[in-house]
Amino acid sequence: MPDTTQSQTNKNGSTSPKNKMTFSQRSADRLTSFMGSWTFILLFCAFLVIWMAINAVAWANQWDPYPFILLNLVLSTLAATQAPIIMMSQNRQAERDRQQAQYDYAVNRKAEREIQDMQKELKSIQQQLKKTDKDRQIILNDYAADKKSGRQMENILKELESIKRLLRKTKDEEIKEIKKKRKK
User: Where would you find the membrane-spanning parts of this chain (predicted)?
Assistant: First the structure.
């Protein structure tokens, strides 16, 4: 019997052990699926009612009279074959679930590593932003200091201008006085 634990990974990343299943395993899965359906239950109930009705009503050719011993044998045989078929299907489903859990675990681990890498990058970006903010603050402070120095320089230049005007004015006044004195 081939090993069904080996699985192939399909294009969306999920495992697909059905590719490795034998004909009997696929048949067991189909039977289990059918036996667990309402269709099977209703058909089986109809079969039981018809069996009992035919054998209860028929006066001649009863192949299974009232205690329905043959029906008991059929039901016992059915139960005896259903149990291992269901168990085989459940075992394969458990294996598929285990493989899916392993795959999910691997995906989650990879996602966790990627998240950790992104967090490291985010911390690095935050540190760079803090450094950039500090540099920007230094530049703003220098600019403010330069601006303050510029204003001081402007004030000094204004004072120099006013001193120049005063000097011109006093010079002009002296010249006028000298001219007045000469005229006299």
Answer: 31-54, 66-88
